[in-house]
Amino acid sequence: MAILAERRTYVAGQWVTGDEVVRVENPADETHVADITATPLDQVEHAIGEARRSFDAGRWADLAVADRARILHAFIDHIEAAADVLVPTLVAEAGQPTRFAEMTQLRAGVGLARQTIDLYQSMTHEEASPVPVDDLVRGRVALSIRRHEPVGVVAAITPYNAALIMGFQKLIPALMAGNSVILRPSPLTPMSSLIFGMAADAAGLPSGVLSVVVESGTAAAELLTSHPAVDMVSFTGSTLAGRKILAQAAPTVKRVSLELGGKSAQIYLADAIHRVAAGAAMVVMSTAGQACVAATRMLVPEDLRAQAVEAVSGAYRAITVGPPDRSDAAMGPVISAAQRDKCERIIAAAEENGAKVVCGGARPEGLSRGYYLEPTVLDVADNANPAAQEEIFGPVIAVLGYRDLDHAVSIANDSIYGLSGQVYGADVATAVQVARRLRTGAVNVNTTVFSAYAPSGGYKQSGLGRERGPDGIREFQEVKHMSIGELSR
């Protein structure tokens, strides 16, 4: 199938060709997909300068909200219309199932983008600021106003596991708020993000308002996170990388929004133990466990642990692993040989520390090419085990037992992470009580919702700030207070 033909990068309204190339590999079969021209570092500097100029001149920020919305709807229209080449591009660069690329990345991403525009337009961005009357009289203030204004120049750095939808999740709220943005996708999956540059051209975004830069290393990312002309960094990726970004941003005290790693727990009350197979499948299906919100720790009553391990193992043995062009394949590869090696190292460390591999743990037979790993179930007795503490980012789940609900909450919260969580129980009131005690940015009780109106983000080392929801829009805005009175004579 045809994939996106563009191989250049997009800098301040111009398509740029560099001398270096970024080689894109299909992790499903290790074939060469394409060579994308890397953005020269001086052109990344140019993108920053033009973003600064476009913002300071008000080319985008000073447009009426309705005009920004109209242009961004046209921007989204162009991306949606490119489905026939965009979906195969997503499949080729990430090795993900076609259904995930089409329904989750593209269709859900487009829906999220349009919802974000609606949400922004429904919010108040200038409002009266309540102040006690005595303070107003004392200061001779006629009006006290709180304004939400764009931050300025935003560097948006997206991950490999969901490049398109993460791009939508950052670009649309940032642009609706009036910011100028430089998007830097993961070097592992840069191709699909070029559609944003193509859409900017088609929709008529003013020059400098959006750039898409590509690199094989980290030099451009480091320039974006440290440059004094960049006002904000929005990053989704690992906690290790997030720590580095905080250090790089510190000298210029720029705003940083981080959605980082997770080691989320799915907790089952005794009356929901029948649900464990379906819950475990959600961890590995489509993404091969490569999702920061994946609930890779399963917590069940200790006396039902053996039953849960058996049910989960049965579900994992039934999953067919293979390339996306195989119609019966429900799970694809991880992104690279290095990522598969990491998964294997943590499985080995888990065994050394007392965990038992009940299912999987090896490379599938018959798949000599591609970075595959069997869906793996670990029976883990202690939450201190590496498989219960480290983010694996692969198709591996750890099943742990708890004595009572206090113990379950204690296990779930015993982590440096706090990104997401799940609680299942027919006794909804009890399940909600457990959810309220979890130190995590989102908790799903018996169901889930993905919407531009529902915020996500992390506690602890899972991040700073929020994406989506009103809070996600406010991340891309500064707050200004204005006190207004008559001039004294």
What does this structure look like?
This is Aldehyde dehydrogenase. It comes from Mycolicibacterium pulveris. Keywords: Oxidoreductase. Residues 15-481 form the Aldehyde dehydrogenase domain. GO terms for molecular function: oxidoreductase activity, acting on the aldehyde or oxo group of donors, NAD or NADP as acceptor. The protein is of the alpha/beta class and 489 residues long. It has 2 domains: 9-260 and 463-481, Aldehyde Dehydrogenase, Chain A, domain 1, CATH 3.40.605.10; 265-452, Aldehyde Dehydrogenase, Chain A, domain 2 (3-Layer(aba) Sandwich), CATH 3.40.309.10. The chain has 16 helices and 20 strands. It has helices spanning 41-56, 65-81, 83-94, 98-122, 133-139, 163-176, 194-203, 219-226, 239-249, 276-284, 305-317, 337-352, 386-389, 405-413, 428-437, 469-474; strands spanning 9-11, 14-16, 21-25, 32-37, 126-128, 143-150, 153-157, 180-184, 210-212, 232-236, 255-259, 265-268, 297-301, 356-359, 376-379, 396-402, 421-424, 444-445, 463-464, 477-484. Strands 14-15-16-13-12-17-18 form a 7-stranded mixed sheet, with helices on both faces. A 6-stranded mixed sheet has the order 9-8-7-10-11-19, with helices on both faces. Strands 5-6-20 form a 3-stranded antiparallel sheet, with no helix packed on it. A hairpin with a 2-residue loop joins strand 1 (9-11) and strand 2 (14-16). Helix 3 (83-94) crosses helix 4, helix 4 packs parallel to helix 6 (163-176) and helix 10 packs across helix 11 (305-317). The radius of gyration is 24 Å and the shape is globular.
